[in-house]
Amino acid sequence: MSILGRGKSFSWKDLGLMTLGTALISIGVYFFKFPNNFSTGGVSGISVVLGHYLPQSPGALVFIINQVLLVVGFLFFGRSFGLRTTYCSLLFSGIIWSLEAIIPLDKPMTNQPLLELIFSVMLPAVGSAILFNIDASSGGTDIVAMILKKLTSVNIGNSLFIVDFLITVAACFAFGMETGLFSMMGLIIKAVLVDMVLENIKTHKCFQIITTAPTPIVEFIVDELGRGATELKGEGAYTHENKTIILTVVNRPQAIRLRRYAKEIDPSCFILITNTGEIIGKGFRGTM
Predict the structure, then answer these.
(1) Dist CA 114 CA 286 (whole Å)
(2) How many whole angstroms separate alpha carbon 76 and alpha carbon 78?
(3) Are 231 and 218 in contact (CB under 8 A)?
(4) What is the pLDDT of residue 264?
């Protein structure tokens, strides 16, 4: 069963992943970023800085800013504006606001700011990577990026990094140099960590199995693993024996099973296994 969104359907699995990713972002922001006044960019960073000057709490400001950006997004994109972004943005705002009411915090959880910085960056980075991997986002400045992409030819990645950097600099004036430097460190770590986690999530194993017993191996790939495979005909350069080269891509748990099974069926088979991060096709990602 699927749900309609972004002009195409997405599954209940995607909904679960969006909820998990948004929850991780919310926990990292509320429990570790807000109490320490870490401002590493985005709506949460803006809210931390503005919360220092305005009577509103950072959680309330997150909710207000996200709703304004959602309205702007719908004004610019109409019905084509993604339900994924809408859902994640509303959920993020709702979780933050609920946590403020249920578990109010007036100081950091520990007296170790570096430890809390790591968690304030790590949890949102993992959550963001989960969302990015299924073409979703928690809204906020991502909506600004979508609008800039539509209206201008500027480099969106560089523009957003500059905006995040300026927000981080504002933290220096609002909370002092120590907090500002921690925030700058967090901004750099966040940029690196999101890419690392995203690449790790996307990595699959590409198999090239050179064998004289292709039929049971292909049947195992198709029937047991639920993956497709391509058979290529080859010939051994030294023995001139006819060989079959089986080409397939599987995830990590499946890779362990396939490697073990292939060796059981044909102990003399030759297996090449490589990592691949971009697979476009049925069973992986839609064609561009």
Answers:
(1) 41
(2) 6
(3) yes
(4) 93
Report pLDDT digits (tens) over 120-149: 989 988 888 888 777 777 777 777 776 776
List residues bridging with 221 in a β-sheet.
Answer: none
Calculate what percentage of the chain has a pLDDT beyond 90: 32
Q: At what angle do helices 83-102 and 58-77 cross, to 10 degrees?
A: 170
Q: What is the pLDDT of residue 76?
A: 79
Rounded CA separation 95/128 (Å): 16
The token duo for 213 is 């017993």
Strands 270-276 and 230-235: unpaired
The architecture (CATH level 2) of 203-276 comes to: 2-Layer Sandwich (3.30)
Q: Which amino acid is at 26?
A: S
- Give the mean pLDDT of 221-228: 91
Nearest CA to 131 out of 15, 29, 45 is that of 15
